[in-house]
Amino acid sequence: MTRRAVWIGITIGVFFAGIGISFAILSVTYNPSTMKFTNQELFDMMMSQNPKMTAKWLDTTLGSEMRQKPMMSDMSFNVNAPIIIPMIDGYYNGERVFFVHTEVSDKAMAEMMTWMINFPTLHTSELKNIPEDDMSKVYVFTNGIAGSEPYGGGPFMFQIDVFDSIPGQMEYSQFRVPHLVTWNDDSTPRVLTSIEEILEAESNGELTIQKTDNVVNAPMIVWKSGGMEQKASMVQRMFESMPGVDGEITNVDVDNYLVMMKLHAQNSMGMMSQGMMNP
Question: What tens digit of pLDDT does each residue of 214-241 get?
Fold first, then answer.
């Protein structure tokens, strides 16, 4: 396995929900001015059509000192310590779901998703080695209805993502291929909350769908099944780039978009270090 040594420092000592329990704070630095998207023409088009995203991307939320630092360095952490990860919301079949994204195969997308939630999404090119039959889909909107807080919508600042499956279904996989959804110029955008609505709008000529070459590791944490809210208790394969690391979910705070996990390593390492794929 080819790896490049890229490390992010993590310190322990922040309390969660007023309880004396420490968790890791990851120091994230990157330079958005050097980002390149796999489909640069499409990326430039989306940036030009969305001034809000462009402004936020360039400067609004980043201090000059942070902007001048290179993308992620040192990552090491104690697997016995809890870690809090921001959750992101999306839709499945008209219902709200919550998930995390830990890795993505495209470097620019890793930087973009890191910036989106102010928490590292690792660049792991080996995700592309996962057989397509073992992957699900996530639909990401590139234009249309403006997003909402806490993250401004999906990664392109429009409505939140739509998923094609939930845990417990045969077709569910936490490894997903993003499909970009773009409303056509002569259509009237609206919020779509299910795959059926997206495909119907496509068949009506209202929007186009573009499959990407990327793969994202996006375990679902909270979803509804049979009208009842379900929560994951364990996330296996938390990081494809760190084999044998699972995440035991100890607390979920939907109101504040947070999930607390305790990471477990099969080889019982006390400390683990992350080497990210490909320069």
Answer: 999 999 999 999 889 999 999 999 999 8
pLDDT score, position 98: 98
What number of CA atoms fall less than 13 Å from residue 23's CA on the CB side? 19
Residues in the chain: 279
Task: Return all residues near 32 (Cβ < 8 A) that are at least 6 apart.
Answer: 57, 58, 62, 67, 111, 115
Q: How confident is the model at residue 264 (pLDDT cuts 50, 70, 90)?
A: confident
Q: How far is CA 47 from the centre of its chain?
A: 19
The reported pTM is: 0.72
Ordered DSSP codes for the chain = ---B-----EEE---BTTBS---EEE-----GGG---TTHHHHHHHHHH-HHHHHIIIIIT--HHHHTSPS----EEETTSEEEEE-EEEEETTEEEEE---EES-HHHHHHHHHHHTS--EE-GGGGGS-GGG-EEEEEESSSSB--TTTTSSTTSBSPPEES--TTSTT--SEEEEEEEEE-TTS------SHHHHHHHHHTTSEEEEE-S--EE--EEEEEETTEEEE-SEES-S-TTSTTEEEEEEEEETTTTEEEEEEEETT--SEEE--BS--
Annotated domain spans of the chain: 10-273
In 3D space, the residue among 200, 206, 198, 247 whose CA is nearest the CA of residue 99 turns out to be: 247
Q: Decide which of 45 and 216 is more confident.
A: 216
State pLDDT tens for residues 109-148.
899 889 888 899 999 999 999 999 999 999 999 999 998 8
